[in-house]
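USER: Please consider what follows.
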Amino acid sequence: MDAITQTSPEVVFHYTSLETMMNIVKSRTFWATSILYLNDYQEREGFMAEAVRQMATLKANHADAFGTSFDDYLQLDPSIWSESENLPFVTSFTELSDSLSQWRAYCPYGAGISIGFDVAALELARLHGDDKPINERTRWEMKSEVTFRRVEYAKFPAFDTVRAEVIEALRRARESSKYFSPGSGRVDVPESQAFRLEIEAIAATYKDYSFQAEEEHRLLAEFLFWGHPSVGFRTTRSSLVPYVVIEIPTADGNFSEDTEWNAVRQVVVGPTPNPKLTVAAVKNFLFSQGLRIPVTVTSVPYRDW
């Protein structure tokens, strides 16, 4: 098995708490977390370990063609590049609307909810503040990107898949370098740095095939650095966690707060001792926010004593 690829659905689901659901709906935003701080502590490792091996092979066999493009990885200890400051920020979704494993992993018992989002709206999301002209965001001339992507599952090392992605990342980096060419008046971005941004974005969409049952999709905020003005920090039980705010528009790309927000298509209430009361309260809350959408209760007969 090399990789598993499928087409995108029309609706994907985000599992969270009732409290967070209320914040998302009120603000029409998500908090995306740095990929280094996700629950999977091996995130990126399988893909990047093989990617670096492929870089070494490609450069050894075709030094003239690849030049210094891979030097950021080949000249650094892996423990350094695995702590890169410019990794993507992630918000996760799944195709599964009512999954026991998702309820257990991502929701507090009795207060969990699954929010179904229109993929068309997610594909038009943007970083909070990116509506401002570039010259108003000091130093950040490389405009950040928010993309919606399906997670690919591979049995690593997945030689052919990873090699193809390394070559594609370099193609994109060289294409973007034209924008930052000498004489453009823009900040100079070395090809090796542009490649690093591209390969990290690709790595953020690959996971080991043992996770394939999650059917995950991701919103990725790319091309950010710790010093970027959009990066904030929140506390957890044991750490500070970097995050950015992502704005979700309507399905046709309207970000105005005065516009009816049709990005949410349905809601599923998770296992709870009070299903009827919770469904009624969620319906009333959504109605108060101008959302008239289906609210159902889980069919999973799960009870946490």
Remarks:
- The first helix runs from residue 18 to 27.
- Residues 134-141 have pLDDT under 50 and may be disordered.
